[in-house]
Amino acid sequence: MTFIPMMTDVRKIGALLAACLCSCAAVADGLYWANEGPATPDSGAGTEFGRSELSLTLPLERKTRGAEQVSSSFHLDMSKFRWTGTTALQNDYFWMSLPLEYRQKRGKSAEFLLRAEPGFMTDLNVLDSESLAMNADLIGRIYRRSGAFWQFGITVNREFGDFNPRPVIAMAAKPTRDTEVLLGFPRTRIQTRWSNDLSSYVHLRPAGGVWVEEVKGQTGTFKANYTNWKLGFGGEFHWRGALWLTAELGQMRHRRIVATDTTGVVVKATPADDRYWQAGIELRY
């Protein structure tokens, strides 16, 4: 008795499952607009804190050769903070990056992923080595006969509000024909497809950042660190061609903001848990 045909099907199922859940681990191509709060801080400086964000990702290149695949894109985030009661975070803040991904299949039941995203975290007044940073993921996947997979690795990502290395561990499965599940850290996502043109999802993910800025009235450069986790429910609708419309509502948890005001003093706050919304248009091909 041989399992070769079954393993071939497993790899196809696993590849489909990974593709369906890829937005949990990487930036999806498209344009998004999000708004957080504002909320009164539970503790620390200020009387109100909020953020609006515009995000754009454009595909550049994708190549496949045998068991290897390489892709690249251009990414831009622009954040505007509203920290009432302080003189901190008065600029516009940008993350301009070049996400790169390398994937290699290892035999019939394993895959290796390497993601690197070099970029500038800046208010556009600082564009030098101090504002240069890189997100990175090193991940291995082990596929099972059912098409599910386990993934293990390590990640460094400014969305945690710092650049400390953290573990990656997750399990992905397809419990029903229309539902895909990724459970783990740092991202969890459960997605259900109601038709070829409509799906819904629930996910948990980090959504903070780090920026380098100049502060009015001060000399030198300063860092701003924002820690934030988003638990959201959203929907996706196939509009036309390769374009999908998305909308999401949710709650923010475990928030922390640290920045420097115009007197040169480091100010901190713990914004209260609050609601956010996000809308966008995705490009899928």
UniProtKB/TrEMBL annotation:
- Per the record, the domain of life is Bacteria
| Sorted UniProt keywords | Signal
Q: Where is the signal peptide?
A: 1-28
Q: In its keyword annotation, does this UniProt entry include Signal?
A: yes
Q: What is this protein called?
A: Outer membrane scaffolding protein for murein synthesis (MipA/OmpV family)
